[in-house]
Amino acid sequence: MKLLDEVRHVARLRRLALETERCYVRWIEQYIRFHKTAEGFRHPNTMGAEEVERFLTFLAVQRRVSASTQSQAFAALLFLYRDVLHLDLGDVDALRARRTRRLPVVLTREEVGLLLTGLDALPTREPYGLMARLMYGAGLRLMECCRLRVKDVDPARGQIVVRQGKGDKDRVVMLPAAAAEAVAEQTRGRLALHQRDRERGDGRVWLPDALDRKYPEAPFAAGWQFLFASRQLSCDPRGGSRGRHHVYPAAVQRAVGAAVRSLGWTKRVGCHTLRHSFATHLLEADHDIRTVQELLGHADVNTTMIYTHVLTNGAAGVGSPLDRIAAPPAPARAAAPTA
After folding, report:
1. Active-site choice (147, 149, 204, 275)
2. Which residue has the higher pLDDT, 207 or 210?
């Protein structure tokens, strides 16, 4: 078995996510290419802590990657040596990039409304506006929103069950009343599409944890279908079965980017900005930080505490002493002369 194929095999044995598996394979391939010599590629079992340290130092010093990117590469190499090759790296004392703590970009409520309106105005039939409303209105991550199943939305109780979120944890969040009717319409359209798939002999959906073996009819059940499904049928990259997967996350990101550009904003806004805004606006409305922590699915309240630094009643709510003195305003910069 080739090395990268063995990495994929062990990753699936350890039940790693598909994106994690692909990420690890990319870093391991870069690591091998980095240590290529005139004689050719070296197998990782002929290398060790010194080579790993050189590669990580190269990432930090030459490529100047972020601390999280370097940590990701280190995790991939630890997985390679510890779980695939069963070798002990020992101490790796690379020049690590310093981990920084960045404040999240947060929109005002008025800006969220403008962004949602901009998404609704895009020339597409995809429900990107509704997905953005759920990401903001329920604090969903992008992948959590894409992976919503029809059965996970409970209109009677006004809640959404997020399955297998970050850290493989489930949680319950609110179903925004302002989006309830749109979600119901999306569900009706999704069930109609599933019925047409069944009539054509398709209608299969991917299920986690080999549930399709335990419940052979579940992949064709309406409740298990993705609420936001792709318009095209595709094949499971692992199992090879043909079915209808959820909408591609990058398509949602492109739609949000297009809406931001149409508004002419200079701040960096993406799908995760809606989740940041959800948490910040709840704290500004005096909701308990522990409640916000549960809604976000954070394991540690310290992760949620970062939003206290961007509240409008925080530093931005403190009057500057410059505004209290009787002095003329700062002069505007003169315009550059024209030719």
Report:
1. 275
2. 207
Per the CB < 8 A criterion, the answer to whether 252 and 260 are in contact is no
Active site residue 275: yes
Does residue 283 share a domain with residue 233?
A: yes
- In one-letter notation, the amino acid at residue 314 is G
Q: Which domain holds residue 222?
A: 103-317
Residue 92 covered by a domain = no
Q: Report the CATH number at residue 124.
A: 1.10.443.10
Q: Round to whole Å and give the CA distance between 201 and 192.
A: 14
Residue 339 lies in a domain: no
272 is catalytic: yes
Out of 35, 151, 166, 171, the active site residue is 166
pLDDT in tens, 154-205: 999 999 999 988 888 899 999 999 999 999 999 999 999 999 999 998 889 9
Strands (E), the chain: 153-154, 159-162, 171-174, 234-235, 242-243
Please tell me whether residues 279 and 237 are part of one structural domain: yes
Residue 101 catalytic?
no
Q: Are residues 71 and 186 in the same domain?
A: no
Among 52, 129, 122, CA closest to 93:
52
Q: Is 141 a catalytic residue?
A: yes
Quick one: pLDDT at residue 211? 84
Sign for the CA dihedral angle at 221, 226, 229, 232 comes to: negative
Concerning whether 307 is annotated as a catalytic residue, the answer is: yes
> What b/e string do you get for 79-117 counting C-beta neighbours within 10 Å, with b at 16 or more?
bbbeebbeeebeebebebbeeeeeeeebbeeebbebbbe
Active-site residue (options: 8, 141, 244, 246): 141
pLDDT at 196: 93
Specify the pairing of strand 234-235 against strand 153-154: unpaired
Q: Which of 11-20, 46-55, 249-258, 329-338 shows the highest mean pLDDT?
A: 249-258
